[in-house]
């Protein structure tokens, strides 16, 4: 499979630095907003922001999305640790793509934000409850870290669908056709 280099992008070092800066920014904004919620609201309090579509509602979540798995907080701590390690490990392959640097940086920062809660918030190390506060009616209550995770995963999926590789190369339609036909040839043997 051949891949075409993408338009001039950042060097590998700049891409990794960009991902680290975005991760640090995402983590910092997440932790700052959670600190603000904890210091200015009481648990369960709701403040209208843009009624009827957006509220701040202070909530502690021991589980995952939609409060699933509340009795398995330790499992989510392990999963988040693994995801963060996976993202950091694969960031070494970055090169020539601002989009991938942004996507992986946002994902790492979001995961690190929620992992910080799991590790350092009550009730115990590794079992901490995540602070959620962004409430949208008939949906979930979430936080800034969750927003970075979701947006970054959408971006990563889009880059994969459109053939932008993590190293900055781009697969062409012809390359994908050649891969498909070589797979068919192997099946015929």
From TrEMBL:
Pathway: Protein modification; lipoprotein biosynthesis (signal peptide cleavage). One of its GO terms (biological process) is proteolysis. It catalyses: Release of signal peptides from bacterial membrane prolipoproteins. Hydrolyzes -Xaa-Yaa-Zaa-|-(S,diacylglyceryl)Cys-, in which Xaa is hydrophobic (preferably Leu), and Yaa (Ala or Ser) and Zaa (Gly or Ala) have small, neutral side chains. The chain crosses the membrane at residues 73-91, 98-120, 140-166. It is found in: Cell membrane. One of its GO terms (cellular component) is plasma membrane. It is a multi-pass membrane protein. It comes from the Bacteria. The keyword Transmembrane helix applies. It holds the Pfam family Peptidase_A8. GO terms for molecular function: aspartic-type endopeptidase activity. Its EC number is 3.4.23.36. The active site is at residues 132, 146. Keywords: Aspartyl protease, Cell membrane, Hydrolase, Membrane, Protease, Transmembrane, Transmembrane helix. This protein specifically catalyzes the removal of signal peptides from prolipoproteins. NCBIfam families: lspA. PANTHER family: LIPOPROTEIN SIGNAL PEPTIDASE. HAMAP family: LspA (MF_00161). Belongs to the peptidase A8 family. This is Lipoprotein signal peptidase. It comes from Nesterenkonia xinjiangensis. The gene is lspA.
